[in-house]
Write a structure and sequence with these properties.
Elements: H1 2-12, H2 15-24, H3 31-50, H4 54-63, H5 66-83
């Protein structure tokens, strides 16, 4: 049930949502980075939540600015730890 709710939520996420989330967490994203993160989220959300995202992060490291990458990975692990009990 939880997974289905999360899946429906991810389906509705827009690029604008990603931009706003970045801004609200002091991460400035260029349009290309938004496109990259949007595509990865849509394609790999189950891996981010339930699997090992390390290979995805390794790939993203080559596609994102160093600052965006570092802040993004830190934010990911902070949020995952915070919301783990809901997953």
């Amino acid at each position: 049930m939880k997974e289905q709710l999360i899946e429906k939520y991810v389906e509705r996420i827009t690029k604008e949502d990603i931009k706003k989330f970045g801004i609200s967490n002091s991460i400035s994203l260029c349009d290309e980075e938004i496109d990259i993160l949007y595509a990865e989220l849509k394609k790999n959300w189950k891996i981010f939540l339930y699997g090992n995202p390390t290979p995805i992060f390794s790939e993203l490291k080559t596609k994102l600015s160093p600052t965006t990458y570092e802040k993004g990975v830190e934010l990911f692990y902070t949020m995952k730890q915070k919301y783990q009990s809901f997953l």
